[in-house]
Amino acid sequence: MRITHRISGVVAGVVACVLSVSAGIVAAGSLDSPGAPDAVISYTLEDIYNRLNSGTARTPGTFTKPFSGPPESVVHSLNDIMGIAPMVDEINGASAGDVLAGKTFWGETSGGWGPRTGTLATQTLSNATDTVAAGYYEAMTLHNVDANLTSANIKAGTAIFGVMGNLAGGVSCTCPGGSSPLGRWCDNNNGTVTDTTTGLVWLKDAGWGGQKSWRASDGSDNPYDDAHTRAGFLFNGTAGLTDGSVEGDWRLPTKTELITLTSTAGIEPISVGSPQMFTGIQSDGYWSGTASAGYSASAWLVVLGSGHVNLAGKTIAYYVWPVRGGK
Description:
Elements: H1 2-27, E1 41-42, H2 45-54, E2 61-62, H3 78-84, E3 104-107, E4 114-117, E5 122-123, E6 136-137, E7 159-160, E8 163-164, E9 167-168, E10 171-172, E11 185-187, E12 192-195, E13 201-203, E14 211-213, H4 227-232, H5 255-262, E15 285-291, E16 298-303, E17 309-313, E18 317-319, E19 323-324
Parallel strand pairs: 5-6
Antiparallel strand pairs: 1-2, 3-4, 7-8, 9-10, 11-12, 12-13, 13-19, 14-18, 15-16, 16-17
C-alpha cells in the first residue's frame, strides 16, 4: 500500500507539470505572421546603397520571395553601405557658415550632423573704403571697390567679374554710337566702326565701294577705276564720313584682315545675317589687297555670304570694303 501511494503521487505530479506547460503555450498566442510576406512595402539594401552612393531616387517596393539567393556580387552588403555612409569630419567638414545662406547641405561635423541650411551672407560693396568681410560677393559690385575695373581697361571680348572689355592695342573705344553685345564692334558715330580686337577702323557702309576689278590697269579701259583706287579715294566728307580722315588713309584690307571679319573662331564674326554694327553687307565676294603668290593674274577675296576664302582673276569685279589703320 505504501509503494502504490508513492507511484500515484509521482504520476499526478507529471500530469500537473504537463498541464502547466500547455497552459503557458496557449497564453502566448499565435506566432504566425498576420500577413503574407509579399504584403511588406519596404526599401531594399540596394535602394539604400544607391541613395547614399549617387543620390538615386527610389520608392519602396513590395517584397517578392526569391526563388534562390542572388549572387554575392549583385547585392551590396551592410558593410558596403556603411563604407559609403557619411562620417563626422571635424577638420574639413562644412558648417552652416561655409555654405551660402538658404542652400541646403549635409553637415558632417559633430556639432552640425545631418541636413543643414547655410548661413553665409551675400555681401555688397559700395566704395573702396568698405571693409571686405567674409562672405559671397556679387561680381557686379566689385567695380565699386576698384575704379579701374572698367571696360576701357579690359581686353576686348574678355569679361572680368561681369565687366566686358573693349580695349584694343592699348587704346580704348568709347563707342558713342553703341557697341555690339560682346564689345568687339564699336560704332564711332562718324561713319566708321572700330574692331576693338585689332584696332582696325572699317567703313560702316560695307556696300559703298560697289563692285570693281582688283586692278583696272590689267585690261580695263579706265585704269583709275579699280578696287585700290576706290578704297583710297575715301576721306572726311565722303561716304558720310566725319572722322577727320584724309585721302590716302583708307585702303583695301589684307587677306588676313578680311578673314578675321568672318572667322567663327573669332568674337562676334560678321555675316550677311549678323551684320553687327555695319550696313550694306553683301553676300558676294570682297576683294583683299593681297595678290596670289603663285598666280600673278589672281588675288584673294572673302565671300561674306559663306565665309569662304577664294582666289579670283584680278579683272573680275567684286565688292570693295575700305579700312584704315593696321596693316
